[in-house]
Specification:
11 helices; 28% helix; 26% strand; 18 strands
């Protein structure tokens, strides 16, 4: 019986890190070239940890094409990149491309999916893959769910888990989520980080970048170093990813108390804080407004009116993700990255390869 190759997926959102906040704030640009570099560092780490195959979708910005071209390079051979297989999607240049790629990878039974994007990209992937773990990499604008880290280290952690060298109880973290429900409309939507209630009547440009457009915020976690809507609670009532509860905050420009918050990179605004507290799990929360819009993970998606009764509920049913720090700490304690003299990356073997290459180089006559 043939053994299936050890396979993981990589999904890079071509549009992440390129949204309107490049114009309204001083956010940096995460280019396609940058994403190609991140993917190649992942491939090197996956190859070093025994991953045999990587699935990737095609795209219209040249990311997949560049990775495929570079997979034939000397560097790729020396680093023993895994074999690559590309899904030729019918591209719509929308979030449906990400969802379709995630479904394809789930059907192929990948051990994990490395996601390059922001909060919205990770939410789209999580909605399609059940309990397949996500290796989260930040390439968006206001990223809170994916942590900012070097792709090589993240790839090592993901590869060690996928190759069953680190047990799931150490490697995986179950994330919290927010459920937005409106029973009369049959609505149930998910946010991984925050839900913001805005008095703006229409979805419009989606992103919220003004404090005056915020009336209430619910968060799964809130870290003081965050940028974006979750930073409101992060700088007032911090909550870690591991704690079972979340937090909420009500805002009013006329409040006597105000907080200076980075709502986007380089965009600092004062927000009037009316009230705040911890958000307990599994307790539906009504909204403070009768009409307006709801922004999920930074993007306005839902309009509601006085006839609707939407609620927000925190629970522990979010996606699984690789706890990179926990995996690498375990790897250090167990010496999982120790290698013997037979390993191709052992210094003795590297010296032998260098000697052979030097012998093959023609030397000029004197």
């Amino acid at each position: 019986m043939n053994r299936r190759p050890l396979t993981v997926g990589i999904i890079a959102n071509p549009a992440s890190g390129r949204d309107v906040r490049r114009l309204t704030a001083n956010a940096g640009l995460f280019s396609s070239t940058d994403k190609v570099s991140v993917i190649q560092r992942l491939l090197a780490a996956f190859g070093a940890t025994g991953i045999e195959q990587v699935l990737m979708p095609t795209d219209m910005t040249g990311i997949a094409a560049a990775v495929q071209k570079n997979s034939r390079s000397r560097q790729a051979r020396e680093q023993h990149w895994p074999a690559l297989e590309f899904l030729d999607l019918t591209l719509r240049q929308s979030v449906e491309d990400t969802r379709q790629a995630a479904r394809w990878m789930a059907e192929r039974g990948v051990s994990l999916i490395a996601v390059l994007g922001g909060d919205g990209t990770h939410k789209a992937v999580a909605a399609e893959v059940g309990d397949i773990p996500l290796l989260t990499l930040s390439t968006g604008t206001n990223n809170a769910f994916p942590e900012l880290r070097e792709a090589t280290s993240a790839g090592l952690a993901g590869g060690l888990y996928a190759n069953s060298r680190v047990p799931a109880e150490i490697a995986l973290r179950r994330n919290k989520r927010l459920l937005v429900r409106e029973p009369t409309r049959g609505l149930c939507e998910v946010a991984l980080v925050d839900v913001a209630v805005s008095p703006l009547a229409f979805v419009g440009a989606r992103a919220i970048s003004r404090a005056s457009d915020l009336a209430e915020v619910f968060v799964t976690f809130a870290e003081p170093q965050s940028i974006g809507i979750s930073a409101l609670c992060g700088l007032w009532l911090p909550v870690t990813r591991q704690e079972p509860h979340g937090a909420w905050m009500r805002l009013d420009p006329q409040s006597p108390e105000a907080l200076l918050v980075p709502l986007a990179p380089g965009l600092l605004q004062g927000c009037g804080v009316l009230d705040a507290g911890y958000l307990q799990p599994d307790v539906p929360q009504p909204l403070c407004l009768n009409a307006g819009t709801l922004a999920l993970d930074g993007e306005r998606e839902i309009e509601f009116n006085p006839h609707d009764r939407p609620t927000v509920t925190l629970d522990a049913g979010g996606p699984l993700s690789i706890d990179v720090n926990a995996v690498l700490e375990h790897a250090a304690r167990q010496r999982l990255l120790a290698i013997d003299r037979d390993h191709r990356q052992h210094p003795v073997n590297l010296q032998s390869e260098d000697t052979l290459e030097n012998k093959n180089v023609d030397t000029p006559d004197h």
